[in-house]
Amino acid sequence: xxxxxxxxAQIDELLRIMAALRTPKTGCPWDLAQNxxxxxxxxxxxxxxxxxxxEQGDMGALKEELGDLLLQVVYHARxxxxxxxxxxxxxxxxxxxKMIRRHPHVFGSEAERSAGAQPGFxxxxxxxxxxxxxxxDAKRESVLDGVPAGLPALTRAVKLQNKAARVGxxxxxxxxxxxxxxxxxxxxEEAVASDQGAExxxxxxxxxxxxxxxxxxxxxxxxxxxxxxxxxxxxxxVRRFQAVEQKLAADGRxxxxxxxxxxxxxxxxxxxxxxxxxxxxxx
Length: 283
Hints:
Elements: H1 7-21, H2 29-33, H3 36-56, H4 59-82, H5 88-101, H6 104-107, H7 110-115, H8 121-134, H9 153-166, H10 174-193, H11 198-221, H12 226-249, H13 260-282
Helix pairs in contact: 1-4, 3-4, 9-11, 10-11, 12-13
């Protein structure tokens, strides 16, 4: 680890670098051509790469990806400063104030600290802040407002369901959710069975979307992150399929030179080997 510079000095250096990149005539032509909309996809991508480094347990990659994500914050702040909207210091001050405001059990009065963290304290704090911003007489919009459309679809589904649940629009237990899941699966099967071209393809797409929405609701009731669990399942698929590839490669072949029956058998063996390896680690 390098501690040659204080954190503030390192941040200041990064801000100077970004300012130089965005300086007309002497800056980088590519950086100068960017705006909030063109940079936004990179911001999302970098957040995913942070999540991937965490999933891989690679601390070296995590350090690098966190740096890339920080650069995105600096980039947006620099463009905002150029537009006269706000600067990086304002971003830092805003989040610092928010963290203090939303953690009275840590930073509040002695009585607030003694009371500890109350259930739902974060959402209650957010609700108070919204009320202050909107004003007491502000026109009430939908309870579903505030969930960005650009979120991963499963994550957005859970957030929308959570908002609806807060006003009582929710199943009381997991059992009816499972019943709804079976219902949606049946409707999808019916749509597929009656496939009659482009018109029915739209129905299949709709039913499949309904099924995924209920799957997200199952995850919510189980207090699971559907994105994280799906990433883990995908990684497990990668791991096991690569094991199949390795077994075929040892025989001088590729998957395209094999067949489904053989690959299924190798897949099952990969599962057995994986479980045995996991058991050995637990001993």
